[in-house]
Design a protein that fits this description.
NADH Oxidase, two-stranded antiparallel ribbon, globular, methionine synthase activity, VitB12-dep_Met_synth_activ_sf, S-AdoMet-dep_Met_synth_prd, Vitamin B12 dependent methionine synthase activation subunit
Amino acid sequence: MERRIKEAVRYLGYGRNAADERTLALIEDAFAELGRTAAPKSVCRIFDAAQTEDGRIIIGNMEIRSTSLGRNLKGCTKAVLFGATLGAGVDRLIRRVSLTDMARAVILQACAAALLEEYCDEEQLKIGAELEKEGLYLRPRFSPGYGDFDIRYQEPLMRMLDCAKTIGLTMTDSCMMTPTKSVTALIGASPVKERCPVQGCEACGKKDCEYRR
């Protein structure tokens, strides 16, 4: 619980400053409300991964050009395609609250983002535990929109996961996900263990890592 509160405070933009008692109380209330509303679901599929000499990344039938993703996937033989959502109920809750109490809606937004991140970390740990039985180790999640990994790759990624059918996740023409509190990502799997934290590069102090997103 303490970690998710810290994440919510970070999403609210406090930086290194501590949140006041009233804000912390509102955050705890928001997490309680989200706990009653959220219906988290996830889906993953594993594909062979390869990189060509001319800079292309081949994952299943998807071909990607991205230098930053290529660095992250260096040495990976497999890639996990991953999607997760907190469900449409969270969107309805935030919309309803925003009509009467915008400050509370902002806190709900931050707490929902922290809750989604926590859920993704938990699911990634489960996936990682299974792949470690095969001698493969996961890299941090890498989502469309990071670095030069174009947001438009969201569409083929979601299609390969069949997100609409599996977890009720769809995408607008402008590449926005519905429900909004959702995420898609690629997770590289390498035979070499790099000790990458499941929380991702933001939780790691190694600034010169070649896999950093």
